[in-house]
Automatic annotation (TrEMBL):
This is HP domain-containing protein. One of its GO terms (molecular function) is actin filament binding. It comes from Caenorhabditis japonica. Pfam families: VHP (PF02209). GO terms for cellular component: actin cytoskeleton; cytoplasm. GO terms for biological process: actin filament severing; actin polymerization or depolymerization; barbed-end actin filament capping. Residues 77-141 form the HP domain. SUPFAM superfamilies: VHP, Villin headpiece domain.
Length: 141
């Protein structure tokens, strides 16, 4: 998936072909921190006129489904909030773009400790297969 960061001085655009990754949101947010102006995520096929005007020639993309433009910080806050263990197990109301391979990272420290019986740093120090076994045990694999 292609993602492009475009800084035009008074605005930052994060363009993406599909649902933007949380990592790309974090990079854009950190890059734009302390700057004036908006930082927006725009998606292929749903580019606003202000974005299209940045280019000499614009040919619209044909896409099956259009994703709405969103504020970078707002979308990042939605993605990085914590969820209960049950919400993560159910996977029904989770925001698109979450790292589904590391659902445990969305637990509070207390919930993490209760679910895995260890602290995060100890958990992530384990070999990958052991982490996956623990994820399976608590229903997050």
């Amino acid at each position: 998936m292609e993602t492009i960061l475009i800084d035009v001085g008074g605005a930052l655009w994060l363009w993406s072909e599909d649902v933007v990754t949380t990592f790309a949101l974090k990079v854009a947010n950190r890059y734009w921190k302390g700057r004036e102006g908006s930082a927006r995520v725009v998606y292929k096929g749903a580019e606003p006129e202000k974005f299209q005007a940045l280019f000499l020639k614009w040919e619209p993309f044909e896409v099956e489904h259009r994703l709405e433009s969103r504020d970078v910080k707002e979308l990042l806050d939605e993605r990085c909030r914590t969820f209960s263990l049950q919400e993560l197990k159910d996977r029904t109301n989770l925001p698109a773009g979450m790292d589904m391979r590391r659902l445990e990272s969305y637990l509070t420290d207390d919930d993490f400790q209760k679910a895995f019986g260890t602290e995060r740093r100890e958990f992530y120090a384990q070999k990958a297969w052991k982490q996956n076994e623990a994820r399976k045990r608590v229903g997050l694999f």
